[in-house]
Structure formats: structure tokens, C-alpha cells
Amino acid sequence: MGQELSCLSSHEHDLFSAVQHGDTETVRTMVERDSALLHQTTPYDRQSLLHIAAANGQIGILSMLLDQSLYPDLLNRRRQTPLMLAAMRGKIFCVKKLLDAGANVLKFDSLNGRTCLHYAAYHGHADCLQAILSSAKSSHVAASWGYARFVNVRDGRGATPLHLAARQRRPDCVHILLDSGALVCASTDEYGHPGSTPLHLAARGGSLDCVRELLAWGADRLQRDNSGRIPYSVAMTHMHKVCAALLDPSSTEPLVWPSPLKFISELNQDAKVLLERALMQANKERESRILEGKAISVSPSHSEAGEDSDILEANDSNLCTICFEQVCTIQVQNCSHQLCAHCTLSLCCHNKPNPNTASLTPPVCPFCRGPIARLTVAEFGRSNDPDHDVNDISSSKLRRTRRSRNLSEGSCSFRGLSSSVGSLGKHGGFGSGRIAVDDDDLTEKP
């Protein structure tokens, strides 16, 4: 951009330089003196004032320009909008401001045929990605174009945002996209090797975290690209041995996010986080056995750091009365029975579809056999008795009462589910749980 500015007249150079460096007073003075300057662009790339402000995160100047009724979807030479540049640079406040001003998330550039969602996913700005998805869900895009279609929008080479995030080693973006309905087994057209799935691209990039996320959401280890390669072959070709060990078809199948959980009407977000963490933890235990068997060591990933920071200390008051190993972290809202995340996953993964209707029935509480309509995070240390004294020595009696209540209600269910939990670490997968639902990027090589 500096070379462009050097080609401008002194007056224009001062204006664009002031926008780039956030000199709000200079910009305001110059614009008030000559309103035509609002529509000035750089000579070669045709960057407008909005483009420069958005790319450099100058939220004050951006707000001032938008207040002057400037069109938020101005296009530069590559048909990039200010929103695309803000998403590419990770300028979250500018992204939110442009979205609030009505910026169109369905604009495609002429460089690679990508939207702002592609830019955010490719460059790994999870906060920008989430903001764009939230805006699309509440805007006309969801009603006219379709939210699921937007999440899986393809660029000019057939790559979805999930493909780009997996290839560029962006596990946080991969998780957000999968949670928003991205198709885990979608194939590319020309991006990478034709026919590549996100798992192929994660294997090529060697991102263990991306591979973990994709496998947990049901990515197929045996799906082949147009060259006939499975992800395991791609990982071996690029010497990513740890990823290859997990992608080896002969290795133990990973556990998959069970689809019955998607049919619970109100799955509390905090409860979902606990269930996902339990799923990833169970898979990591399998990984350790796989890697030990293949004599491969792996250093802890950044996502594992501090994952036990909020784990509650197990004691008689909060120990799960199904497995007697994990802490109760999940509560069935309508009956208030509590169980651990691992047992909740086991409960849902063993709930098979009706063979006649091919539809899933909602899971039921193992204690009272009531339908589970809502799961929330278990609450600890609270009493329904207003006269309860927290210092009362009868707290041990309260613990025994809660445990006996869970054990006494639905003992047959307890015994049946207890055995299924024991087999959770032995099964190859969750059965029916699979889900089917830039400038530095000018020359992407396959």
C-alpha cells in the first residue's frame, strides 16, 4: 500500500496516510473541506477509504466514514469488500461495525471467488468467523439464501470455509464451522488435490487438533480423493506420522459426536462444551494407546493446556452414581437427575434409530425413564431447603440422600447403562452417531 500512496498527489497522499495511521482529526478536517474526497481510491488497487480503515483496524475512522452514508460494500480492484479485508486481518471491531452497517456477507471476490467467511477461516480469525456466522443467521441470508448453504459456500475452486480452515491448521475455526453445520465429508473441485475432504487437507497440513475435531464429528477415514488416496496416505506422503497413526484404517475407530444429542430441544451451550470435552478426552485416551503401540510420541497441543483447570474435585457429594468414576457435570433439567458427561455420551450413543421410521427417539433418563428434553450444567452446593445451613454437619446425610435417590429410581436402567458405560472405551465408534449434514493466497499450489 505504501507504493500506491507514493503515486498519489500530495493532497491525496495525506488523506490516505491519515486514514492508515488513524489520524481522525486530519481525516475529518479534509473531508469537511472537500466531501468529494470520500470517494477517492488508490490508483492501482482502487482501495477506498473504507478499505484502508478496515484493513488497518481504524474503527474510529471507519465509524466516521460510515456515518457519512458511505456504501459499506465498496469494491476494490479484486472485488474485495472492506468486510473481507477486515476479516482477513482479524480486525474484529471493524468486522462487527461493518456487519451492523449492513455489509453483505454474500459478496464474492474476483481473486479466488471467496466470501468474507472464507477469509476469516483461511486466516484463522475465529472471533471474526463467529461474528459473520451470527450475522448471517439473523439476517436475510438465512431466510433467502439459506444458513446451511452459506456455511458450506464454495469458492471458485470448490473449497468450503471448512476446507480452508483444515488446510491452514485452524482448529478453532474448524470447530466453529462444524458446530454451525459445515459438511465434514464435502469434497473439493480443484482446491488441493481434486476430491479432497477436510480430513485430507488436515492430514496434508499435519494438524493433529484439526484431525481430532474432524474425526470426532464423523469424518470418514476411508473416503478417497479423485486420485484414490485416503487421508492416511496423504499424511504419510507429507511425513506427518502422528496424524497418520490416528488415520490408519487399522487403528481403533474414534468416538463420534452422537446424533441423538442434536435432537434434544434445548442443549445448554455450557453442557455441550462439557460433553464435547468428554468426547475429546475419551478419544485422546484412545490416541495414547494407538501412539504407544506404534512407538510415536506427541507433545501436548495448545488446546490441551489447562483443560483440567475447571475440573471439580471428585467426592461423595458429586460423584456420578452410574460409573462411580467421573464427577457429575450434567443435569437433566426436567427431573434434576445428575450424571457425568461420559455417561451422558454413552446414554445417547446407545440410542439407536427406529428401523421402521429411520428416526431417532429422544433419549430417556436412566433413573426415572422420563424423556430428556433439556440438558444443563449440574449445580453444586445448592439446597432447595431455605432453612438449610451451609455449615450444618448433616451435609453427609444430604450426599447420601442424593446418591440413594439416584440409585433407587430406575435401578434396572442403572445396571444396564452401567454396563454400557464400561464398554464405551471398547467400541470402535458411536454407531449411528455420524453426522452428514489475501493477498498471500494468490498462488495456492496443490
TrEMBL record:
Enzyme class: transferase
Biased composition, class Basic and acidic residues, residue ranges: 382-391
Entry superkingdom: Eukaryota
ANK repeat placement: 45-77, 78-110, 112-144, 157-189, 194-226
E.C. no: 2.3.2.27
Catalytic activity: S-ubiquitinyl-[E2 ubiquitin-conjugating enzyme]-L-cysteine + [acceptor protein]-L-lysine = [E2 ubiquitin-conjugating enzyme]-L-cysteine + N(6)-ubiquitinyl-[acceptor protein]-L-lysine
Protein name: RING-type E3 ubiquitin transferase
Positions of the UniProt region annotated as Disordered: 381-404, 421-446
Keywords: ANK repeat, Metal-binding, Repeat, Transferase, Ubl conjugation pathway, Zinc, Zinc-finger
GO molecular function, one term: ubiquitin protein ligase activity
Gene source species: Trapa natans
InterPro entries the record matches: Ankyrin_rpt (IPR002110), Ankyrin_rpt-contain_sf (IPR036770), RING_XB3-like (IPR056760), Znf_RING (IPR001841), Znf_RING/FYVE/PHD (IPR013083)
Any single Pfam family the record assigns to this protein: Ank_2
Pathway: Protein modification; protein ubiquitination
Domain RING-type: 320-369
Keyword Repeat included in the entry's annotation: yes
